Amino acid sequence: xxxxxxxxxxxxxxxxxxxKKLPEPxxxxxxxxxxDVAWKRRGAGVRRLESNxxxxxxxxxxxxxxxxxxxxxxxYLRYWMESFRLPAWSRERIEGGFAPAxxxxxxxxxxxxxGVILALPHLANWDLAGAWVTTKLGIPFTTVxxxxxxxxxxxxxxxYREGLGMEVLPHxxxxxxxxxxxxxxDGGLVCLVADRDLSASGVEVDFFGExxxxxxxxxxxxxxxxxxxxxxxxWYDDSPVMRGRVHPPVEVPGAGTRAEKTSAMTQALADAFAxxxxxxxxxxxxxxxxxLKDLDPAKAPGARERGAR
Length: 309
Prior knowledge:
- With 309 residues, the protein is α/β, with parallel strands linked by helices.
- It has helices at 3-18, 24-41, 44-56, 62-85, 91-95, 104-112, 126-135, 151-163, 176-185, 217-225, 258-279, 292-295, 303-308, and strands spanning 98-101, 116-120, 141-145, 166-170, 189-193, 203-207, 210-214, 228-236, 242-246.
- The strands form 2 sheets. The chain has a 7-stranded mixed beta sheet with strand order 1-9-8-2-5-3-4, with helices on both faces. A two-stranded antiparallel ribbon has the order 6-7.
- Strand 6 and strand 7 form a beta hairpin.
């Protein structure tokens, strides 16, 4: 393990062991302090966050984008402070920590017995939403986690999420899709964060007027298993309670090839995500490149002409 990997593992370990012991007001203050320090340093993540917000809030000037990125970093650190503390939260604290609207889409779907897929963007705290589902609703679910480096850090995340009642599958290895399909055919619940895909198998979608790539998995699982596909968006307000909405189902088109159906369904997910992100951009924790123009400079406006010159 490299020195950098040991440092990352140690910092996350310290977060889970130390932050969860703090009184909640102290944890909130610590999160805001760390967020403000990171924002003032204007590292690559903060600059990328502002660049992404510029797509979400077209016409926003430098002052508006700076205010958004500061609020975004505070929201991001709220996510981390809550996540570090979730294993120590009481059942009552978890049950009272999330208030989703239109929950009937989920409960009715589960009652139908055909399985449900919840697809979410990186909004607010998806781990808290998951803990609420397993605790308040008593519904276990399966999810997928990106295999992090070092391996010990990945193991920490798996143990953390399993401790909240989730079944966690590694994204790599090729067996996750089959396991997810089996859980859905058995009438189970699958939850997937689905607003960013850098693989060659991702589906291109129109997202805030530009092309991005999102994972095909949710749409393919719905087609293959007959499970209900529900977009979910989350946000924070000024209270300790996170808010959310379960959107209406994304239907499988009645005609077209599998690729065409997958494209249409993934675009419908992207549209639902965009609605939630546009309403609460500061809670979208996208500190990475997302749009293809950012990933591939050759796709940027004028790139072909510059190349010809």
